[in-house]
Protein backbone atom coordinates (compact mmCIF):
# COMPACT_ATOMS: atom_id res chain seq x y z
CA UNK A 1 0.00 0.00 0.00
CA UNK A 2 1.36 3.41 -0.94
CA UNK A 3 1.30 6.51 1.19
CA UNK A 4 -0.69 9.56 0.18
CA UNK A 5 -0.74 13.08 1.52
CA UNK A 6 -4.02 14.78 0.72
CA UNK A 7 -4.62 18.50 0.86
CA UNK A 8 -8.12 19.98 0.79
CA UNK A 9 -8.49 23.61 -0.25
CA UNK A 10 -10.90 26.21 1.10
CA UNK A 11 -13.88 25.24 -1.03
CA UNK A 12 -13.46 21.58 -0.03
CA UNK A 13 -13.78 22.43 3.66
CA UNK A 14 -16.23 25.33 3.31
CA UNK A 15 -19.14 23.69 5.15
CA UNK A 16 -20.55 20.42 6.47
CA UNK A 17 -21.62 19.23 3.02
CA UNK A 18 -18.13 19.65 1.60
CA UNK A 19 -16.52 18.11 4.67
CA UNK A 20 -18.69 15.02 4.33
CA UNK A 21 -17.36 14.63 0.76
CA UNK A 22 -13.84 15.11 2.08
CA UNK A 23 -14.34 12.36 4.67
CA UNK A 24 -15.66 9.94 2.07
CA UNK A 25 -12.60 10.62 -0.11
CA UNK A 26 -10.15 10.12 2.76
CA UNK A 27 -11.84 6.94 3.92
CA UNK A 28 -12.09 5.49 0.42
CA UNK A 29 -8.33 4.83 0.41
CA UNK A 30 -6.36 3.68 3.47
CA UNK A 31 -3.21 5.18 1.92
CA UNK A 32 -4.62 8.67 2.62
CA UNK A 33 -3.05 8.98 6.06
CA UNK A 34 -2.02 12.64 6.24
CA UNK A 35 -4.58 15.34 5.59
CA UNK A 36 -3.69 19.03 5.20
CA UNK A 37 -6.52 21.55 5.28
CA UNK A 38 -7.12 25.17 4.38
CA UNK A 39 -9.46 27.47 6.27
CA UNK A 40 -13.09 27.33 5.14
CA UNK A 41 -13.45 29.17 1.84
CA UNK A 42 -16.44 30.47 -0.09
CA UNK A 43 -19.63 28.39 -0.10
CA UNK A 44 -21.18 30.38 -2.94
CA UNK A 45 -20.13 33.34 -5.04
CA UNK A 46 -20.27 36.47 -2.94
CA UNK A 47 -19.52 34.54 0.25
CA UNK A 48 -16.41 35.37 2.31
CA UNK A 49 -13.33 33.29 2.94
CA UNK A 50 -12.51 32.87 6.62
CA UNK A 51 -8.92 34.01 5.97
CA UNK A 52 -10.17 37.33 4.57
CA UNK A 53 -12.52 37.78 7.53
CA UNK A 54 -9.69 37.16 9.97
CA UNK A 55 -7.48 39.76 8.25
CA UNK A 56 -10.36 42.20 8.48
CA UNK A 57 -11.08 41.38 12.10
CA UNK A 58 -7.48 42.04 13.10
CA UNK A 59 -7.39 45.30 11.17
CA UNK A 60 -10.63 46.49 12.80
CA UNK A 61 -9.20 45.70 16.21
CA UNK A 62 -6.03 47.66 15.38
CA UNK A 63 -8.07 50.64 14.18
CA UNK A 64 -10.27 50.51 17.27
CA UNK A 65 -13.31 49.68 15.17
CA UNK A 66 -15.82 47.28 16.72
CA UNK A 67 -14.91 43.76 15.62
CA UNK A 68 -17.27 41.75 17.86
CA UNK A 69 -19.83 41.15 15.16
CA UNK A 70 -17.23 40.05 12.66
CA UNK A 71 -15.66 37.69 15.15
CA UNK A 72 -19.08 36.21 15.75
CA UNK A 73 -19.54 35.60 12.01
CA UNK A 74 -16.27 33.66 12.01
CA UNK A 75 -17.21 31.73 15.15
CA UNK A 76 -20.61 30.87 13.63
CA UNK A 77 -19.01 29.38 10.51
CA UNK A 78 -17.05 26.93 12.65
CA UNK A 79 -19.88 26.11 15.03
CA UNK A 80 -22.16 25.58 12.02
CA UNK A 81 -19.69 23.01 10.69
CA UNK A 82 -19.29 21.38 14.08
CA UNK A 83 -23.02 21.00 14.68
CA UNK A 84 -23.96 19.93 11.18
CA UNK A 85 -21.49 17.05 11.42
CA UNK A 86 -22.01 16.22 15.12
CA UNK A 87 -18.33 16.73 15.83
CA UNK A 88 -17.38 16.65 19.49
CA UNK A 89 -14.70 19.19 20.27
CA UNK A 90 -14.12 22.09 22.65
CA UNK A 91 -14.59 24.73 19.97
CA UNK A 92 -15.85 27.31 22.50
CA UNK A 93 -12.63 26.99 24.50
CA UNK A 94 -10.52 27.54 21.36
CA UNK A 95 -12.59 30.51 20.22
CA UNK A 96 -12.41 32.14 23.65
CA UNK A 97 -8.61 31.83 23.66
CA UNK A 98 -8.32 33.36 20.18
CA UNK A 99 -10.57 36.24 21.15
CA UNK A 100 -8.59 36.88 24.31
CA UNK A 101 -5.37 36.98 22.26
CA UNK A 102 -6.93 39.21 19.63
CA UNK A 103 -7.90 41.56 22.45
CA UNK A 104 -4.37 41.38 23.85
CA UNK A 105 -2.88 42.47 20.51
CA UNK A 106 -1.37 39.20 19.24
CA UNK A 107 0.12 39.46 15.74
CA UNK A 108 -1.79 39.47 12.47
CA UNK A 109 -0.02 36.26 11.42
CA UNK A 110 -1.20 34.52 14.58
CA UNK A 111 -4.82 35.71 14.26
CA UNK A 112 -5.09 34.84 10.56
CA UNK A 113 -3.46 31.43 11.07
CA UNK A 114 -6.33 30.47 13.34
CA UNK A 115 -8.45 29.94 10.21
CA UNK A 116 -6.41 26.85 9.30
CA UNK A 117 -5.83 25.93 12.94
CA UNK A 118 -9.56 25.66 13.75
CA UNK A 119 -10.26 23.96 10.45
CA UNK A 120 -7.69 21.23 11.19
CA UNK A 121 -8.83 21.03 14.81
CA UNK A 122 -12.40 20.20 13.72
CA UNK A 123 -11.42 17.95 10.81
CA UNK A 124 -9.13 15.91 13.09
CA UNK A 125 -12.02 15.31 15.49
CA UNK A 126 -14.35 14.50 12.57
CA UNK A 127 -11.98 11.93 11.03
CA UNK A 128 -10.71 10.60 14.35
CA UNK A 129 -7.12 11.47 13.29
CA UNK A 130 -4.45 13.16 15.43
CA UNK A 131 -4.15 16.94 15.18
CA UNK A 132 -0.63 18.25 14.59
CA UNK A 133 0.08 21.96 14.99
CA UNK A 134 2.67 23.23 12.51
CA UNK A 135 4.05 25.76 14.97
CA UNK A 136 7.63 24.62 15.58
CA UNK A 137 7.51 22.31 12.54
CA UNK A 138 7.25 24.57 9.51
CA UNK A 139 10.10 26.93 10.21
CA UNK A 140 11.03 30.41 9.00
CA UNK A 141 14.08 32.57 9.55
CA UNK A 142 13.80 36.04 11.10
CA UNK A 143 13.16 37.54 7.66
CA UNK A 144 10.20 35.28 7.05
CA UNK A 145 11.95 32.93 4.62
CA UNK A 146 11.04 29.27 4.77
CA UNK A 147 13.84 27.07 6.10
CA UNK A 148 13.30 24.03 3.89
CA UNK A 149 15.78 21.60 5.43
CA UNK A 150 15.02 22.45 9.07
CA UNK A 151 11.31 22.14 8.24
CA UNK A 152 11.82 18.78 6.61
CA UNK A 153 13.69 17.40 9.60
CA UNK A 154 11.17 18.73 12.13
CA UNK A 155 8.15 17.51 10.18
CA UNK A 156 9.71 14.13 9.54
CA UNK A 157 10.42 13.55 13.24
CA UNK A 158 6.92 14.60 14.33
CA UNK A 159 4.92 12.86 11.62
CA UNK A 160 6.71 9.57 12.26
CA UNK A 161 4.91 9.47 15.59
CA UNK A 162 1.46 9.54 13.98
CA UNK A 163 -0.22 6.86 11.94
CA UNK A 164 -2.92 9.29 10.80
CA UNK A 165 -2.96 13.06 11.21
CA UNK A 166 -4.63 16.28 10.20
CA UNK A 167 -2.31 19.23 9.69
CA UNK A 168 -3.31 22.88 9.29
CA UNK A 169 -1.99 24.58 6.14
CA UNK A 170 -0.66 28.10 5.61
CA UNK A 171 1.49 28.71 8.71
CA UNK A 172 4.45 27.72 10.81
CA UNK A 173 6.67 29.68 13.16
CA UNK A 174 9.95 31.53 13.36
CA UNK A 175 12.71 29.14 14.30
CA UNK A 176 13.65 29.21 17.97
CA UNK A 177 10.64 31.38 18.91
CA UNK A 178 6.92 31.03 19.58
CA UNK A 179 6.09 33.55 16.81
CA UNK A 180 3.53 32.19 14.35
CA UNK A 181 4.35 33.08 10.73
CA UNK A 182 2.17 32.79 7.63
CA UNK A 183 3.17 31.52 4.22
CA UNK A 184 1.94 33.67 1.34
CA UNK A 185 -1.71 33.50 0.27
CA UNK A 186 -2.75 30.08 -0.97
CA UNK A 187 0.13 28.65 1.07
CA UNK A 188 -1.67 25.52 2.26
CA UNK A 189 -0.58 24.00 -1.05
CA UNK A 190 2.99 24.50 0.13
CA UNK A 191 2.26 22.90 3.51
CA UNK A 192 0.87 19.86 1.69
CA UNK A 193 3.97 19.64 -0.42
CA UNK A 194 6.29 19.95 2.60
CA UNK A 195 4.38 17.21 4.41
CA UNK A 196 4.49 14.96 1.33
CA UNK A 197 8.25 15.38 1.15
CA UNK A 198 8.73 14.79 4.89
CA UNK A 199 6.81 11.50 4.95
CA UNK A 200 8.17 10.37 1.58
CA UNK A 201 4.67 10.12 0.10
CA UNK A 202 4.09 8.18 -3.10
CA UNK A 203 1.74 10.88 -4.23
CA UNK A 204 0.55 14.32 -3.14
CA UNK A 205 -3.16 14.71 -3.88
CA UNK A 206 -4.34 18.28 -4.00
CA UNK A 207 -8.15 18.36 -3.79
CA UNK A 208 -9.87 21.48 -5.05
CA UNK A 209 -12.98 22.47 -6.98
CA UNK A 210 -11.78 21.79 -10.53
CA UNK A 211 -10.84 18.50 -12.15
CA UNK A 212 -7.24 19.54 -12.71
CA UNK A 213 -5.70 21.89 -15.19
CA UNK A 214 -7.27 22.80 -18.47
CA UNK A 215 -5.33 23.42 -21.66
CA UNK A 216 -6.47 27.03 -21.72
CA UNK A 217 -8.55 29.55 -19.81
CA UNK A 218 -12.23 28.52 -20.25
CA UNK A 219 -13.23 32.20 -20.24
CA UNK A 220 -11.37 32.53 -23.53
CA UNK A 221 -11.60 29.04 -25.05
CA UNK A 222 -14.97 27.31 -24.61
CA UNK A 223 -14.62 23.84 -23.06
CA UNK A 224 -10.86 23.49 -23.27
CA UNK A 225 -9.46 19.96 -23.08
CA UNK A 226 -8.27 18.82 -19.64
CA UNK A 227 -4.55 18.23 -19.12
CA UNK A 228 -4.06 14.63 -18.01
CA UNK A 229 -0.42 14.94 -17.24
CA UNK A 230 2.15 17.70 -17.20
CA UNK A 231 5.73 18.05 -16.02
CA UNK A 232 6.82 20.38 -13.22
CA UNK A 233 8.72 22.42 -15.78
CA UNK A 234 5.69 22.93 -17.99
CA UNK A 235 3.55 23.78 -15.00
CA UNK A 236 6.05 26.39 -13.90
CA UNK A 237 5.92 28.04 -17.33
CA UNK A 238 2.13 27.98 -17.38
CA UNK A 239 1.70 29.30 -13.85
CA UNK A 240 4.20 32.05 -14.48
CA UNK A 241 1.95 33.07 -17.35
CA UNK A 242 -1.11 33.22 -15.15
CA UNK A 243 -2.60 29.70 -15.18
CA UNK A 244 -3.30 29.21 -11.52
CA UNK A 245 -4.32 26.01 -9.85
CA UNK A 246 -1.48 25.51 -7.41
CA UNK A 247 0.73 27.83 -5.38
CA UNK A 248 4.03 28.32 -7.26
CA UNK A 249 6.16 27.36 -4.27
CA UNK A 250 4.30 24.07 -3.86
CA UNK A 251 6.27 22.47 -6.65
CA UNK A 252 9.78 22.74 -5.20
CA UNK A 253 9.56 20.42 -2.16
CA UNK A 254 7.96 17.52 -4.05
CA UNK A 255 10.02 18.07 -7.16
CA UNK A 256 13.14 17.48 -5.13
CA UNK A 257 11.85 14.09 -3.99
CA UNK A 258 10.18 13.18 -7.26
CA UNK A 259 6.70 12.94 -5.74
CA UNK A 260 3.92 13.41 -8.29
CA UNK A 261 1.13 15.87 -7.56
CA UNK A 262 -2.40 14.90 -8.54
CA UNK A 263 -4.89 17.77 -8.75
CA UNK A 264 -8.37 16.38 -8.00
CA UNK A 265 -11.92 17.65 -7.69
CA UNK A 266 -13.69 17.11 -4.35
CA UNK A 267 -17.04 17.49 -6.12
CA UNK A 268 -16.18 14.91 -8.80
CA UNK A 269 -13.95 12.42 -7.02
CA UNK A 270 -14.05 9.92 -9.90
CA UNK A 271 -12.39 12.33 -12.33
CA UNK A 272 -8.71 11.42 -12.66
CA UNK A 273 -7.59 15.07 -12.55
CA UNK A 274 -4.13 16.21 -13.64
CA UNK A 275 -0.86 14.47 -12.77
CA UNK A 276 2.16 16.70 -12.34
CA UNK A 277 5.36 14.72 -12.58
CA UNK A 278 9.09 15.19 -13.03
CA UNK A 279 9.45 13.85 -16.51
CA UNK A 280 6.98 13.22 -19.23
CA UNK A 281 7.75 11.11 -22.21
CA UNK A 282 7.86 13.69 -24.98
CA UNK A 283 6.97 11.16 -27.65
CA UNK A 284 3.72 10.11 -26.01
CA UNK A 285 2.07 13.46 -25.57
CA UNK A 286 0.57 16.37 -27.42
CA UNK A 287 2.96 18.92 -28.86
CA UNK A 288 1.41 21.61 -26.70
CA UNK A 289 0.35 20.86 -23.12
CA UNK A 290 -1.25 24.20 -22.44
CA UNK A 291 -1.61 27.83 -23.38
CA UNK A 292 -1.64 30.72 -20.95
CA UNK A 293 -1.20 34.44 -21.15
CA UNK A 294 -1.07 37.74 -19.32
CA UNK A 295 -1.88 41.29 -20.26
CA UNK A 296 -0.33 44.59 -19.17
CA UNK A 297 3.23 44.40 -20.41
CA UNK A 298 5.37 47.14 -21.92
CA UNK A 299 8.04 46.46 -24.51
CA UNK A 300 10.94 48.88 -24.81
CA UNK A 301 12.72 48.29 -28.11
CA UNK A 302 16.20 49.80 -28.45
CA UNK A 303 17.84 50.01 -31.89
CA UNK A 304 21.49 50.76 -32.57
CA UNK A 305 23.61 50.04 -35.57
CA UNK A 306 26.45 47.58 -34.76
CA UNK A 307 24.97 46.88 -31.32
CA UNK A 308 26.32 43.35 -31.50
CA UNK A 309 29.89 44.68 -31.56
CA UNK A 310 29.47 47.09 -28.66
CA UNK A 311 30.91 45.56 -25.51
CA UNK A 312 28.78 46.06 -22.38
CA UNK A 313 25.66 47.36 -24.16
CA UNK A 314 23.27 44.90 -22.53
CA UNK A 315 24.97 45.26 -19.16
CA UNK A 316 24.49 49.03 -19.24
CA UNK A 317 20.83 48.64 -20.16
CA UNK A 318 20.27 46.18 -17.33
CA UNK A 319 22.12 48.40 -14.86
CA UNK A 320 19.70 51.19 -15.64
CA UNK A 321 16.79 48.89 -14.86
CA UNK A 322 18.44 47.73 -11.66
CA UNK A 323 19.16 51.27 -10.50
CA UNK A 324 15.47 52.01 -10.99
CA UNK A 325 14.46 48.81 -9.18
CA UNK A 326 12.69 47.43 -12.23
CA UNK A 327 12.28 43.73 -12.82
CA UNK A 328 12.14 42.59 -16.41
CA UNK A 329 10.54 39.43 -17.78
CA UNK A 330 12.13 38.80 -21.18
CA UNK A 331 14.87 40.25 -23.30
CA UNK A 332 14.85 39.00 -26.88
CA UNK A 333 17.73 40.41 -28.90
CA UNK A 334 18.52 40.93 -32.57
CA UNK A 335 21.87 41.91 -34.11
CA UNK A 336 21.13 45.60 -33.86
CA UNK A 337 18.16 45.63 -31.53
CA UNK A 338 17.23 44.74 -28.02
CA UNK A 339 13.71 44.44 -26.66
CA UNK A 340 13.00 44.50 -22.98
CA UNK A 341 9.65 43.15 -21.86
CA UNK A 342 8.49 44.50 -18.52
CA UNK A 343 5.26 44.23 -16.54
CA UNK A 344 3.73 47.68 -16.96
CA UNK A 345 3.16 48.14 -13.23
CA UNK A 346 6.94 47.89 -12.70
CA UNK A 347 7.33 51.07 -14.75
CA UNK A 348 4.75 53.15 -12.88
CA UNK A 349 6.19 56.65 -12.55
CA UNK A 350 9.60 55.47 -13.78
CA UNK A 351 9.28 55.16 -17.57
CA UNK A 352 10.47 58.70 -18.36
CA UNK A 353 13.56 58.37 -16.16
CA UNK A 354 14.45 55.02 -17.67
CA UNK A 355 14.09 56.25 -21.24
CA UNK A 356 16.18 59.28 -20.48
CA UNK A 357 18.91 57.12 -18.98
CA UNK A 358 18.82 54.81 -22.02
CA UNK A 359 19.22 57.83 -24.32
CA UNK A 360 22.06 59.26 -22.28
CA UNK A 361 24.03 56.12 -21.53
CA UNK A 362 23.38 53.95 -24.59
CA UNK A 363 23.19 56.59 -27.36
CA UNK A 364 20.77 54.45 -29.38
CA UNK A 365 19.63 55.25 -32.93
CA UNK A 366 16.04 54.87 -31.85
CA UNK A 367 13.89 53.73 -28.97
CA UNK A 368 10.29 52.60 -29.33
CA UNK A 369 7.89 51.93 -26.49
CA UNK A 370 4.89 49.64 -26.95
CA UNK A 371 2.45 49.76 -24.08
CA UNK A 372 -0.54 47.45 -23.73
CA UNK A 373 1.24 44.32 -24.85
CA UNK A 374 -0.11 40.89 -23.94
CA UNK A 375 2.11 37.83 -23.71
CA UNK A 376 0.96 34.36 -24.64
CA UNK A 377 2.92 31.21 -23.92
CA UNK A 378 2.40 27.95 -25.74
CA UNK A 379 3.98 25.36 -23.48
CA UNK A 380 4.75 21.73 -24.13
CA UNK A 381 7.56 19.23 -23.75
CA UNK A 382 6.29 17.82 -27.03
CA UNK A 383 7.73 20.90 -28.77
CA UNK A 384 11.21 19.81 -27.88
CA UNK A 385 12.60 18.08 -30.88
CA UNK A 386 9.42 18.54 -32.94
CA UNK A 387 10.61 20.69 -35.82
CA UNK A 388 8.19 23.36 -36.87
CA UNK A 389 6.19 23.69 -33.68
CA UNK A 390 7.15 27.34 -33.09
CA UNK A 391 6.50 28.00 -36.75
CA UNK A 392 2.97 26.65 -36.30
CA UNK A 393 2.36 29.08 -33.43
CA UNK A 394 3.63 32.00 -35.48
CA UNK A 395 1.75 30.99 -38.61
CA UNK A 396 -1.53 30.59 -36.76
CA UNK A 397 -1.19 34.10 -35.40
CA UNK A 398 -0.02 35.56 -38.71
CA UNK A 399 -2.88 33.92 -40.63
CA UNK A 400 -5.29 35.64 -38.27
CA UNK A 401 -3.76 38.97 -39.27
CA UNK A 402 -2.29 39.60 -35.83
CA UNK A 403 0.96 41.49 -35.65
CA UNK A 404 3.67 40.16 -33.35
CA UNK A 405 5.48 42.55 -31.05
CA UNK A 406 7.87 39.95 -29.73
CA UNK A 407 8.85 36.28 -30.01
CA UNK A 408 10.85 34.35 -27.47
CA UNK A 409 11.58 30.65 -27.42
CA UNK A 410 12.92 29.34 -24.13
CA UNK A 411 16.31 27.65 -24.31
CA UNK A 412 14.73 24.53 -22.91
CA UNK A 413 12.54 24.51 -26.05
CA UNK A 414 9.42 23.81 -24.04
CA UNK A 415 7.75 27.15 -24.57
CA UNK A 416 7.25 29.79 -27.18
CA UNK A 417 6.20 33.17 -25.90
CA UNK A 418 4.75 35.77 -28.19
CA UNK A 419 3.79 39.37 -27.51
CA UNK A 420 0.74 40.87 -29.23
CA UNK A 421 -1.27 44.04 -28.86
CA UNK A 422 -3.62 43.52 -25.90
CA UNK A 423 -6.67 43.97 -28.14
CA UNK A 424 -5.72 40.74 -29.97
CA UNK A 425 -5.01 38.72 -26.85
CA UNK A 426 -8.13 36.52 -26.91
CA UNK A 427 -8.06 36.06 -30.66
CA UNK A 428 -4.41 34.98 -30.63
CA UNK A 429 -5.08 32.44 -27.86
CA UNK A 430 -7.99 31.02 -29.83
CA UNK A 431 -6.07 30.55 -33.06
CA UNK A 432 -3.11 28.91 -31.31
CA UNK A 433 -5.45 26.57 -29.47
CA UNK A 434 -7.21 25.67 -32.68
CA UNK A 435 -3.92 25.00 -34.42
CA UNK A 436 -2.81 22.43 -31.87
CA UNK A 437 -5.88 20.88 -30.31
N1 LIG B 1 -6.49 30.20 3.66
C1 LIG B 1 -5.31 30.75 3.05
C2 LIG B 1 -5.70 31.68 1.92
O1 LIG B 1 -6.87 31.93 1.72
C3 LIG B 1 -4.35 29.71 2.63
C4 LIG B 1 -4.88 28.66 1.71
O2 LIG B 1 -6.06 28.45 1.60
O3 LIG B 1 -4.06 28.02 1.06
O4 LIG B 1 -4.84 32.20 1.26
CATH architect. name of the largest domain: 3-Layer(aba) Sandwich
The CA-CA distance between the termini, in Å, is: 37 Å
Give the uncertain stretches in residue-range form.
none
Number of helices: 13
> What is the general shape?
globular
CATH class bucket of the largest domain: Alpha Beta
Q: Strand tally, please?
A: 16
The side-by-side strand order for the widest beta sheet comes to: 3-5-2-1-8-10-11-9
Task: Give a verbal description of the structure.
With 437 residues, the chain is of the alpha/beta class. It folds into 2 domains: 4-277, Acetylglutamate kinase-like (Carbamate kinase); 290-436, VC0802-like. It has helices at 16-27, 50-62, 68-84, 91-103, 108-127, 148-159, 188-199, 232-240, 251-256, 313-323, 351-362, 389-399, 425-436; strands at residues 4-8, 32-37, 130-131, 139-140, 165-168, 171-174, 180-182, 203-208, 229-231, 261-265, 274-277, 290-303, 337-343, 366-379, 404-409, 415-421. It has an 8-stranded mixed β-sheet with strand order 3-5-2-1-8-10-11-9, sandwiched between helices. It has a 5-stranded antiparallel β-sheet with strand order 13-12-14-16-15. Aspartic acid (ASP) binds at residues 9-10, 38-39, 49, 51, 115, 169-170, 185-189.
Give the SSE layout.
Elements: E1 4-8, H1 16-27, E2 32-37, H2 50-62, H3 68-84, H4 91-103, H5 108-127, E3 130-131, E4 139-140, H6 148-159, E5 165-168, E6 171-174, E7 180-182, H7 188-199, E8 203-208, E9 229-231, H8 232-240, H9 251-256, E10 261-265, E11 274-277, E12 290-303, H10 313-323, E13 337-343, H11 351-362, E14 366-379, H12 389-399, E15 404-409, E16 415-421, H13 425-436
Parallel strand pairs: 1-2, 1-8, 2-5, 3-5, 4-6, 8-10, 9-11
Antiparallel strand pairs: 6-7, 10-11, 12-13, 12-14, 14-16, 15-16
Amino acid sequence: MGLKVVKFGGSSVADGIQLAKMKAIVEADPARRYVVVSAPGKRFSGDSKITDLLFLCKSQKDRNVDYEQLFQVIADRYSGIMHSLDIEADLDGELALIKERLEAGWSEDYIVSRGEYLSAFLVAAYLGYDFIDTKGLILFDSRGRLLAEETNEALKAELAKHEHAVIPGFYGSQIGTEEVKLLSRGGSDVTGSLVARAVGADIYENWTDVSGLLMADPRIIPNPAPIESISYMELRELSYMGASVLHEDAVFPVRESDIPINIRNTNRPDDPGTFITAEKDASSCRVISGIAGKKDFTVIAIYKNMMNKEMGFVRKALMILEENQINFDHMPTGIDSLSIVIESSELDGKLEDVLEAFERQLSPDDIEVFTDVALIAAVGIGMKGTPGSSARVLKAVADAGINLRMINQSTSEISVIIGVEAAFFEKAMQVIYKEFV
